[in-house]
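Re: [help] complex structure
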Amino acid sequence: MHETVELDKELLKGSINLLILRLLSQRDMYGYEIIQEASRRSENAFQFKEGTLYPALHQLQKQGYLRSQWLTAGNGRKRKYYSLTAKGRKQAEQRQKSWTFFIDAINAVLTRE
Amino acid sequence: MHETVELDKELLKGSINLLILRLLSQRDMYGYEIIQEASRRSENAFQFKEGTLYPALHQLQKQGYLRSQWLTAGNGRKRKYYSLTAKGRKQAEQRQKSWTFFIDAINAVLTRE
DNA sequence: CCACGGTACTTTGTGATCCGAGGTATAAGG
DNA sequence: CCTTATACCTCGGATCACAAAGTACCGTGG
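Output below.
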Protein backbone atom coordinates (compact mmCIF):
# COMPACT_ATOMS: atom_id res chain seq x y z
CA MET A 1 0.00 0.00 0.00
CA HIS A 2 2.18 2.83 -1.23
CA GLU A 3 1.24 6.27 -0.02
CA THR A 4 -0.59 8.36 -2.55
CA VAL A 5 1.01 11.78 -2.52
CA GLU A 6 -1.43 14.61 -2.77
CA LEU A 7 -0.34 17.35 -5.10
CA ASP A 8 -2.03 20.62 -4.34
CA LYS A 9 -4.46 21.12 -7.16
CA GLU A 10 -4.10 24.85 -7.12
CA LEU A 11 -0.38 24.75 -7.66
CA LEU A 12 -0.85 22.64 -10.72
CA LYS A 13 -2.60 25.35 -12.63
CA GLY A 14 -0.75 26.83 -15.52
CA SER A 15 1.97 24.24 -15.47
CA ILE A 16 0.29 21.71 -17.73
CA ASN A 17 1.02 23.61 -20.90
CA LEU A 18 4.65 23.97 -19.95
CA LEU A 19 4.97 20.26 -19.29
CA ILE A 20 3.24 19.29 -22.52
CA LEU A 21 5.41 21.57 -24.62
CA ARG A 22 8.61 20.44 -22.96
CA LEU A 23 7.80 16.76 -23.23
CA LEU A 24 6.93 17.12 -26.89
CA SER A 25 10.13 19.04 -27.52
CA GLN A 26 11.99 15.84 -26.69
CA ARG A 27 9.96 13.51 -28.85
CA ASP A 28 6.56 13.10 -30.45
CA MET A 29 4.01 11.53 -28.17
CA TYR A 30 0.33 10.68 -28.06
CA GLY A 31 -1.95 11.94 -25.34
CA TYR A 32 -2.16 8.88 -23.19
CA GLU A 33 1.59 8.54 -23.39
CA ILE A 34 2.09 12.07 -22.10
CA ILE A 35 0.05 11.22 -19.03
CA GLN A 36 2.11 8.12 -18.35
CA GLU A 37 5.42 9.78 -19.04
CA ALA A 38 4.71 12.74 -16.74
CA SER A 39 3.64 10.30 -14.09
CA ARG A 40 6.73 8.16 -14.52
CA ARG A 41 9.22 11.02 -14.44
CA SER A 42 7.64 12.62 -11.40
CA GLU A 43 7.40 9.30 -9.63
CA ASN A 44 3.62 9.50 -9.64
CA ALA A 45 3.45 13.01 -8.24
CA PHE A 46 1.65 13.99 -11.42
CA GLN A 47 -1.37 12.08 -12.51
CA PHE A 48 -2.75 14.18 -15.31
CA LYS A 49 -6.41 13.58 -15.81
CA GLU A 50 -7.70 12.93 -19.27
CA GLY A 51 -10.29 15.64 -18.83
CA THR A 52 -7.41 18.02 -18.29
CA LEU A 53 -4.92 16.83 -20.84
CA TYR A 54 -6.97 16.37 -23.97
CA PRO A 55 -8.62 19.77 -23.94
CA ALA A 56 -5.19 21.29 -23.27
CA LEU A 57 -3.78 19.50 -26.32
CA HIS A 58 -6.65 20.69 -28.48
CA GLN A 59 -6.17 24.22 -27.32
CA LEU A 60 -2.44 24.18 -27.97
CA GLN A 61 -3.11 22.84 -31.43
CA LYS A 62 -5.70 25.49 -32.13
CA GLN A 63 -3.14 28.09 -31.10
CA GLY A 64 -0.75 26.67 -33.66
CA TYR A 65 1.80 25.21 -31.26
CA LEU A 66 1.09 21.59 -32.07
CA ARG A 67 0.16 19.47 -35.04
CA SER A 68 -1.23 15.96 -34.89
CA GLN A 69 -1.53 12.82 -36.97
CA TRP A 70 -3.17 9.49 -36.46
CA LEU A 71 -0.83 6.54 -36.51
CA THR A 72 -1.60 2.86 -36.12
CA ALA A 73 0.66 0.83 -33.87
CA GLY A 74 1.71 -2.74 -34.61
CA ASN A 75 -1.08 -4.10 -32.48
CA GLY A 76 -3.67 -2.21 -34.47
CA ARG A 77 -4.20 0.54 -31.90
CA LYS A 78 -4.81 3.98 -33.29
CA ARG A 79 -2.98 6.80 -31.62
CA LYS A 80 -3.00 10.51 -32.22
CA TYR A 81 0.58 11.69 -32.15
CA TYR A 82 1.37 15.28 -31.41
CA SER A 83 4.47 17.16 -32.48
CA LEU A 84 5.66 20.72 -32.01
CA THR A 85 5.42 23.25 -34.79
CA ALA A 86 8.16 25.83 -35.19
CA LYS A 87 5.94 28.24 -33.33
CA GLY A 88 5.49 25.61 -30.64
CA ARG A 89 9.23 25.23 -30.21
CA LYS A 90 9.58 28.92 -29.60
CA GLN A 91 6.70 28.82 -27.18
CA ALA A 92 8.32 25.95 -25.29
CA GLU A 93 11.47 28.01 -24.82
CA GLN A 94 9.48 31.05 -23.82
CA ARG A 95 7.49 29.11 -21.25
CA GLN A 96 10.64 27.63 -19.82
CA LYS A 97 12.01 31.11 -19.27
CA SER A 98 8.75 32.27 -17.71
CA TRP A 99 8.86 29.27 -15.45
CA THR A 100 12.36 30.01 -14.19
CA PHE A 101 11.48 33.64 -13.73
CA PHE A 102 8.37 32.69 -11.82
CA ILE A 103 10.20 30.32 -9.50
CA ASP A 104 12.85 32.90 -8.77
CA ALA A 105 10.21 35.49 -7.97
CA ILE A 106 8.36 33.19 -5.60
CA ASN A 107 11.53 32.16 -3.85
CA ALA A 108 12.56 35.78 -3.52
CA VAL A 109 9.36 36.55 -1.67
CA LEU A 110 9.59 33.41 0.43
CA THR A 111 13.17 33.88 1.56
CA ARG A 112 14.03 37.56 1.36
CA GLU A 113 13.90 39.81 4.39
CA MET B 1 11.29 53.79 -18.50
CA HIS B 2 11.92 50.58 -16.64
CA GLU B 3 10.87 47.45 -18.40
CA THR B 4 7.69 45.94 -17.06
CA VAL B 5 8.26 42.24 -16.71
CA GLU B 6 5.31 40.13 -17.72
CA LEU B 7 4.62 37.32 -15.34
CA ASP B 8 2.59 34.57 -16.92
CA LYS B 9 -0.81 34.84 -15.36
CA GLU B 10 -1.43 31.14 -15.48
CA LEU B 11 1.63 30.31 -13.48
CA LEU B 12 0.55 32.58 -10.71
CA LYS B 13 -2.43 30.51 -9.79
CA GLY B 14 -2.38 28.79 -6.48
CA SER B 15 0.69 30.62 -5.27
CA ILE B 16 -1.07 33.61 -3.73
CA ASN B 17 -2.19 31.75 -0.64
CA LEU B 18 1.29 30.41 -0.10
CA LEU B 19 2.80 33.87 -0.36
CA ILE B 20 0.25 35.44 1.95
CA LEU B 21 0.72 32.80 4.62
CA ARG B 22 4.49 32.97 4.43
CA LEU B 23 4.63 36.75 4.56
CA LEU B 24 2.32 36.83 7.55
CA SER B 25 4.38 34.19 9.30
CA GLN B 26 7.20 36.73 9.45
CA ARG B 27 5.14 39.62 10.75
CA ASP B 28 1.62 40.98 10.85
CA MET B 29 0.69 43.04 7.84
CA TYR B 30 -2.26 44.78 6.32
CA GLY B 31 -3.53 44.02 2.84
CA TYR B 32 -2.07 46.91 0.97
CA GLU B 33 1.24 46.27 2.68
CA ILE B 34 1.28 42.67 1.49
CA ILE B 35 0.93 43.85 -2.08
CA GLN B 36 3.81 46.26 -1.71
CA GLU B 37 6.01 43.83 0.16
CA ALA B 38 5.55 41.06 -2.39
CA SER B 39 6.31 43.53 -5.12
CA ARG B 40 9.40 44.83 -3.35
CA ARG B 41 10.90 41.44 -2.58
CA SER B 42 10.32 40.10 -6.07
CA GLU B 43 11.68 43.28 -7.61
CA ASN B 44 8.30 44.05 -9.14
CA ALA B 45 7.80 40.62 -10.66
CA PHE B 46 4.67 40.31 -8.55
CA GLN B 47 2.07 42.97 -8.65
CA PHE B 48 -0.79 41.47 -6.72
CA LYS B 49 -4.06 43.01 -7.73
CA GLU B 50 -6.41 44.19 -5.06
CA GLY B 51 -9.21 42.25 -6.67
CA THR B 52 -7.11 39.15 -6.07
CA LEU B 53 -5.66 39.82 -2.68
CA TYR B 54 -8.60 40.99 -0.64
CA PRO B 55 -10.90 38.09 -1.54
CA ALA B 56 -8.00 35.72 -0.84
CA LEU B 57 -7.51 37.25 2.61
CA HIS B 58 -11.19 36.98 3.38
CA GLN B 59 -11.22 33.38 2.34
CA LEU B 60 -8.19 32.50 4.43
CA GLN B 61 -9.80 34.16 7.40
CA LYS B 62 -13.04 32.31 6.86
CA GLN B 63 -11.05 29.09 6.80
CA GLY B 64 -9.59 29.98 10.17
CA TYR B 65 -6.02 30.59 9.07
CA LEU B 66 -6.03 34.33 9.73
CA ARG B 67 -7.49 36.77 12.19
CA SER B 68 -7.73 40.51 11.68
CA GLN B 69 -8.00 43.72 13.64
CA TRP B 70 -8.35 47.34 12.70
CA LEU B 71 -5.56 49.58 13.88
CA THR B 72 -5.11 53.29 13.43
CA ALA B 73 -1.68 54.49 12.43
CA GLY B 74 -0.11 57.66 13.81
CA ASN B 75 -1.25 59.60 10.78
CA GLY B 76 -4.86 58.63 11.42
CA ARG B 77 -5.07 55.99 8.68
CA LYS B 78 -7.08 52.91 9.48
CA ARG B 79 -5.57 49.61 8.49
CA LYS B 80 -6.82 46.07 8.84
CA TYR B 81 -3.94 44.01 10.13
CA TYR B 82 -3.89 40.29 9.56
CA SER B 83 -2.07 37.73 11.66
CA LEU B 84 -1.77 33.98 11.53
CA THR B 85 -3.73 31.75 13.85
CA ALA B 86 -2.14 28.56 15.17
CA LYS B 87 -3.99 26.72 12.43
CA GLY B 88 -2.61 29.22 9.94
CA ARG B 89 0.94 28.59 11.06
CA LYS B 90 0.53 24.90 10.45
CA GLN B 91 -1.02 25.62 7.09
CA ALA B 92 1.90 27.86 6.17
CA GLU B 93 4.32 25.05 6.86
CA GLN B 94 2.19 22.57 5.00
CA ARG B 95 1.96 24.82 1.95
CA GLN B 96 5.69 25.36 2.00
CA LYS B 97 6.21 21.61 1.83
CA SER B 98 3.65 21.25 -0.96
CA TRP B 99 5.43 23.99 -2.84
CA THR B 100 8.82 22.29 -2.61
CA PHE B 101 7.28 19.00 -3.57
CA PHE B 102 5.57 20.59 -6.52
CA ILE B 103 8.73 22.28 -7.79
CA ASP B 104 10.67 19.06 -7.52
CA ALA B 105 8.00 17.20 -9.45
CA ILE B 106 7.93 19.76 -12.24
CA ASN B 107 11.69 19.83 -12.51
CA ALA B 108 11.78 16.06 -12.60
CA VAL B 109 9.50 16.04 -15.62
CA LEU B 110 11.38 18.88 -17.27
CA THR B 111 14.85 17.43 -16.88
CA ARG B 112 14.55 13.68 -16.53
CA GLU B 113 15.07 11.33 -19.45
C1' DC C 1 -16.04 -17.10 -25.79
C1' DC C 2 -16.91 -13.50 -23.30
C1' DA C 3 -16.21 -10.60 -19.35
C1' DC C 4 -13.07 -7.49 -17.72
C1' DG C 5 -9.27 -4.44 -17.20
C1' DG C 6 -6.28 -1.52 -19.66
C1' DT C 7 -5.62 1.41 -23.57
C1' DA C 8 -6.97 5.60 -26.08
C1' DC C 9 -9.69 9.50 -27.34
C1' DT C 10 -13.58 12.87 -26.56
C1' DT C 11 -17.00 16.12 -24.48
C1' DT C 12 -19.97 18.28 -20.93
C1' DG C 13 -20.85 20.54 -16.64
C1' DT C 14 -19.20 22.32 -12.29
C1' DG C 15 -16.56 24.71 -9.16
C1' DA C 16 -12.67 27.45 -8.30
C1' DT C 17 -9.78 31.32 -9.27
C1' DC C 18 -7.65 35.68 -11.10
C1' DC C 19 -8.43 40.23 -12.00
C1' DG C 20 -10.26 44.31 -14.52
C1' DA C 21 -13.26 47.68 -13.34
C1' DG C 22 -15.72 50.19 -10.44
C1' DG C 23 -16.84 51.99 -5.92
C1' DT C 24 -15.89 54.33 -1.12
C1' DA C 25 -13.04 57.04 1.97
C1' DT C 26 -9.17 59.63 3.85
C1' DA C 27 -4.52 61.94 4.03
C1' DA C 28 -0.83 64.62 1.99
C1' DG C 29 1.03 67.93 -1.25
C1' DG C 30 1.07 71.21 -4.86
C1' DC D 1 -9.05 72.52 -4.20
C1' DC D 2 -7.69 69.00 -6.76
C1' DT D 3 -4.82 65.37 -7.74
C1' DT D 4 -2.24 61.45 -6.13
C1' DA D 5 -1.42 57.81 -3.08
C1' DT D 6 -3.18 55.09 0.44
C1' DA D 7 -6.52 51.61 1.95
C1' DC D 8 -10.43 48.85 1.72
C1' DC D 9 -14.23 46.31 -0.81
C1' DT D 10 -17.19 43.80 -4.50
C1' DC D 11 -19.10 42.32 -8.96
C1' DG D 12 -18.76 40.04 -13.34
C1' DG D 13 -16.22 37.89 -17.01
C1' DA D 14 -12.91 34.72 -18.47
C1' DT D 15 -10.20 30.88 -17.73
C1' DC D 16 -9.14 26.40 -16.11
C1' DA D 17 -8.76 21.65 -13.77
C1' DC D 18 -11.30 17.72 -13.52
C1' DA D 19 -14.97 14.46 -12.38
C1' DA D 20 -17.92 11.93 -15.03
C1' DA D 21 -19.69 9.77 -18.71
C1' DG D 22 -19.37 8.01 -23.24
C1' DT D 23 -17.15 5.44 -27.31
C1' DA D 24 -14.16 1.88 -29.04
C1' DC D 25 -10.63 -1.38 -29.25
C1' DC D 26 -7.17 -4.97 -27.54
C1' DG D 27 -5.41 -8.85 -24.66
C1' DT D 28 -6.01 -12.07 -20.99
C1' DG D 29 -8.05 -15.45 -17.92
C1' DG D 30 -11.64 -18.16 -16.42
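Residues 86-111 of chain A form the longest helix (26 residues).
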